[in-house]
């Protein structure tokens, strides 16, 4: 999702055969919605029927196709697939997390004695000083469960960031790793764009916030539930951004993890409103988590109402409201009612093992 000023400019350069260069773009840390200068002149040209676009001429870039402002009916139809994708993906995410937790707890009991024996053998085995693997294990064991959980998410973001540096990947990245309701591909970018950053500063800021809140959110929800909430939050916040863009007619690509991270931040601040927070570069100024959340929601609400085009305020609000709703009501409605699914999974696994055991005799 989110930071899309550069994505619009980058897509123009890719279509005109030029390479994207990082120094062309101002760097920010928050999720953005696309913005552009008012076109000075528009040449009449037949719009592309597949992408729904028209030519656009600006002093900032060569003439390329820009998004047509759809009429009300066709635009709303473009939200049907994203809506069902959001519902289906969220259900699959929480269902998979419930099964994952069940399998993990069961395997943990089964492997208890094996791990104890491995630790005993490791103590008898002579240790090598300066062994790299030993140092990595020591560092890994020093992390909290939350920090270990988000390490994979951070690694995925770094990997996607590296893909943006490959010139031959630019078209693919713009198509699948930026979200836009006017795009030819609607559903998969809703998830993939939440792992996508073009600016190093943008990615570093988002990942720093995620790392900072990781211990609190994982201790609050648990590893499996957190993963389901985080992935669902990315898709839900993107869908809210889609709705806002279609409703207002302001189309443009977005990317970034800010929507999902806003869910994490809002969930922690809702459950621990008296916790003290501080700005990274201004640690002397502290404020409560509850006040911080109110300020963020107020700013994004104002940006959405007033039509600010600097950030993707709809995605921010979607992520924050989902985080507040989930820790207040969603946990009771979704996670605590996972038992029927887990029971059905257990029965299915038991039957499959019974058939496998019967066939072995």
TrEMBL record:
What biological-process terms (Gene Ontology) are attached? signal peptide processing
Q: Report the EC code(s) recorded for this entry.
A: 3.4.21.105
Query: Looking at the keywords, is Iron present?
Result: no
Q: Where is this region: Disordered?
A: 36-61
Which reaction is recorded as catalysed by this protein?
Cleaves type-1 transmembrane domains using a catalytic dyad composed of serine and histidine that are contributed by different transmembrane domains
Subcellular localization, as worded in the UniProt entry: Mitochondrion inner membrane
Q: How does it sit in the membrane?
A: Multi-pass membrane protein
One CC-aspect GO term: mitochondrial inner membrane
Q: Which domain of life is it from?
A: Eukaryota
**Signal peptide residues on this chain, from the entry's feature table:** none
Identify the enzyme class. hydrolase
> Which residue stretches does the UniProt record annotate as biased composition, category Polar residues?
52-61
Q: What is this protein called?
A: rhomboid protease
């Amino acid at each position: 999702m989110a930071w899309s000023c550069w994505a619009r400019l980058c897509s123009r350069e890719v279509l005109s055969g030029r390479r994207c260069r990082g120094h062309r773009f101002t760097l920010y840390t928050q999720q953005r919605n696309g913005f552009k200068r008012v076109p000075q002149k528009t040449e009449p040209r037949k719009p592309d029927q597949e992408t729904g676009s028209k030519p656009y001429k600006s002093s900032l870039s060569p003439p390329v196709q820009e998004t047509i402002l759809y009429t009300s009916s066709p635009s709303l139809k473009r939200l049907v697939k994203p809506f069902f994708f959001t519902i289906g993906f969220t259900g699959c995410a929480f269902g998979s997390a419930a099964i994952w937790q069940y399998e993990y707890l069961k395997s943990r009991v089964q492997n208890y004695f094996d791990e104890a024996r491995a630790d005993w053998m490791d103590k008898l085995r002579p240790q090598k000083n300066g062994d790299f693997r030993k140092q990595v294990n020591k560092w890994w064991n020093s992390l909290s469960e939350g920090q270990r959980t988000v390490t994979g998410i951070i690694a995925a973001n770094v990997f996607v960031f590296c893909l943006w540096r490959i010139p031959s990947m630019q078209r693919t990245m713009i198509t699948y790793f930026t979200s836009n309701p006017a795009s030819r591909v609607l559903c998969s970018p809703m998830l993939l764009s939440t792992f996508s950053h073009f600016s190093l500063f943008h990615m570093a800021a988002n990942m720093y916030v995620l790392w900072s809140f990781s211990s609190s959110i994982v201790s609050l929800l648990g590893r499996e539930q957190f993963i389901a909430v985080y992935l669902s939050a990315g898709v839900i916040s993107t869908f809210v951004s889609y709705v806002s863009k279609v409703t207002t007619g302001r189309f443009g690509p977005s990317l970034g993890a800010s929507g999902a991270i806003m869910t994490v931040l809002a969930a922690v601040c809702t459950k621990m409103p008296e916790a003290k927070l501080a700005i990274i570069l201004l640690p002397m100024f502290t404020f409560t988590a509850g006040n911080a959340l109110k300020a963020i929601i107020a700013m994004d609400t104002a940006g959405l109402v007033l039509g600010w085009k600097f950030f993707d305020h709809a995605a921010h609000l979607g992520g924050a409201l989902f985080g507040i709703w989930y820790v207040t009501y969603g946990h009771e409605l979704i996670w605590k009612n996972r038992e029927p699914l887990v029971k059905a999974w257990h029965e299915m696994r038991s039957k499959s093992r019974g058939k496998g055991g019967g066939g072995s005799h």
